[in-house]
Amino acid sequence: MKKVLIPTxxxxxxxxxxxxxxxxxxxxDILPKPDIPxxxxxxxxxxxxxxxxxxxSETGPVFSHALSDQVTSELVKNKAVASTVKFxxxxxxxxxxxxxxxxEYAGRELGADLILKIEIQHLTFDxxxxxxxxxxxxxxxxxxxxxxxxxxxxxxxxxxxxxxxxSKLEINADDKLSLSKIQRDxxxxxxLQISKLFxxxxxx
Length: 204
Fold this sequence. Notes:
Helix 1 packs across helix 2 (21-30) and helix 3 crosses helix 6. The protein is globular. The chain has helices at 2-19, 21-30, 60-77, 87-95, 103-110, 178-195, and strands at 35-36, 42-53, 81-84, 114-128, 133-146, 152-154, 161-170, 201-202. The protein contains six helices and eight strands.
């Protein structure tokens, strides 16, 4: 029985491969997708997520706060870090410092091993009346710095990792909360893309 079974399986696979393109896709769908490795690992580190808005958008501070909070949550949930500096600690430091603080200064003062620095270069939230929707877009630069010296550890081959994040929500024309909704949705999309740089995950 075993001698018949193995050739039968091989013949069946040859029919799938040689006979029909869609069948090959079916086989590929059944196979498990490979893991995508982390681009940089921080599993044993205390990490400060520091978001700096380089845009003049009035919504920048609100979006920055939401992004910092959500990236921190995603890193903890997926065990990408040992611990994180709480946003409340960073907020208290900002309130007690008269000058604009840098990521390096915050890292030293708050005892971070590493700083995940996210710089928002571009941020827009547009309403498209033809589609009755709001569209959000953010260009973020991401880098990992030493918590004390500010030395850049990642990426090694370029200054920063750049990500363009988009979000689109259908809304009612009279929805006064549409702007806050698209801000939260864009922050969620951005936090997922950014946090996945730092832990192993499946391709979607």
